[in-house]
Amino acid sequence: EPEVTQTPSHQVTQMGQEVILRCVPISNHLYFYWYRQILGQKVEFLVSFYNNEISEKSEIFDDQFSVERPDGSNFTLKIRSTKLEDSAMYFCASSEEGTNYEQYFGPGTRLTVT
Amino acid sequence: DQQVKQNSPSLSVQEGRISILNCDYTNSMFDYFLWYKKYPAEGPTFLISISSIKDKNEDGRFTVFLNKSAKHLSLHIVPSQPGDSAVYFCAATLNTGNQFYFGTGTSLTVIP
Question: Which residues contact A113 (CB under 8 A, 6 or more apart)?
Answer without folding.
Answer: A13, A14, A15, A82, A83, A84, A85, A86, A87
